[in-house]
From TrEMBL, chains A, B:
GO terms for molecular function: RNA binding; tRNA pseudouridine(38-40) synthase activity. It comes from the Bacteria. Keywords: Isomerase, tRNA processing. Homodimer. This is tRNA pseudouridine synthase A.
């Protein structure tokens, strides 16, 4: 048996999310079926993080145990050939120690959220950005973001379905940058609560559109109450960028 | 009557090209129908350049004459609402002089060609890049490109269907740049022959993959013979970037 580390890019559009679901396609199932067809084995693919329906990944990290002897080259090429036409690509494979775990060994996760801020809807990036037609003040968003960085009880930014033991997390960074017509929000932490990034971006966007003041973000955080916000940015602007390991 | 300048972004994937065709959808027809529904007028939309089937535009420039009084804001919003679900977006509108012409007033055109150079196929950018799995030497491509810049008879890089009076064109620049996993080829000229950019990129890619030497590009150009090459890079990696006016 060899444990393989996989780096996976995917378009989240057609999937119910990373995790296998009874009611629709998932990235996990697409990969498990491709690897199963290639090896004849029933495999389980574990990822650094579970993404929501519609969320994309530039480089999700996952692992899978395979009994059959296979070279890294053939494994990557085989999965990519068999996973088609699903929009999933394995960009790198590497053998790892048997006790290495994509989720439990992970010490950092990075996300990118893309907002397209212009009047016209996206033609080339439909399904890849959150389109906000009203003027957004990215400086006000950046100022608000500073209130969220650090160790906090993020209950306000947590899904009611979140299974984390504690709502207390350390947000290492939350940066807002204007990039041409887009506003990019980059978040980094050891781990995130369910919906935390989309919820934080939704909150920053309220500030960017002038509906909230930056101080309202601080008040919402301190309220430790989901009812103080309850608004998520849509999934299709969100990208899992990178999982970090020691 | 007001002549309007339009800046248009489109995903070329579902279209037979810019120009109205009997046998399938075109960007021109999509815009003309949207404007026609909005104004009740039968309009003709003229573009700076005709793009092939599958070729995208970041910012094509076009113009259209409209009798009805309309504000720039309402014109742009109206077209964008009515052109859906076609992947076309008007990003800017501006009234221009009656003798201003998107094609004949244009003094420069810029294209970008995106090659994804990695083993794994694109998951997020499928239909947006030319995927080349073999290793490509972008330095050799850049060296070859210098042979094509300047005033030349570009017969080798011209479609047999090209309607240009002369095969002699001035290529102002042809730059090759490695951008992460992508190789970007940027071309600028007053005007291009039919298939010239895709043909030049196809030729550079032969060098990048080691099938040709940079000197072979010079020889192919000097042959002034379509049979010396006859290979076009696929359309879906090509973007019309910008039309330039005095």
């Amino acid at each position: 048996m060899t444990r393989w580390r996989l780096t996976v890019e995917f378009d989240g559009g057609p999937f119910m999310g990373w995790q296998r679901q009874d009611h629709g396609p998932s990235v996990q199932e697409a990969l498990e079926q491709a690897i199963g067809r290639m090896t004849g084995e029933t495999v389980a693919v574990h990822a650094a993080g579970r993404t929501d329906a519609g969320v994309h990944a530039l480089a999700m990290t996952a692992h899978v145990d395979i009994d059959r002897d296979v070279t890294p080259h053939r494994l990557r090429e085989g999965i990519n050939a068999l996973v088609r036409p699903d929009p999933v690509a394995v960009t790198a494979v590497e053998p790892v120690a048997d006790d290495w775990h994509a989720r439990f060994s992970c010490v950092g996760r990075r996300y990118l959220y893309r907002i397209l801020n212009r009047r016209a809807p996206p033609a080339l990036d439909a399904g890849r950005v959150w389109h906000i037609a009203q003027t957004v003040d990215s400086d006000a968003m950046a100022e608000s973001a500073t209130h969220l960085v650090g160790i906090h009880d993020f209950t306000t930014f947590r899904s009611v379905h979140c299974q984390s033991d504690s709502p207390v997390k350390t947000l290492d960074s939350l940066r807002v940058e204007q990039v041409g017509e887009e506003i990019h929000v980059r978040a980094a932490a050891r781990s995130f609560l369910h919906h935390q990034v989309r919820s934080m971006v939704g909150c920053l966007a309220l500030v960017g559109r002038g509906q909230w003041k930056p101080a309202d973000v601080k008040a919402a955080l301190e309220a430790r109450d989901r009812a103080a916000l309850g608004f998520n940015a849509p999934p299709h602007g969100l990208y899992f960028v990178e999982a970090i390991y020691p």
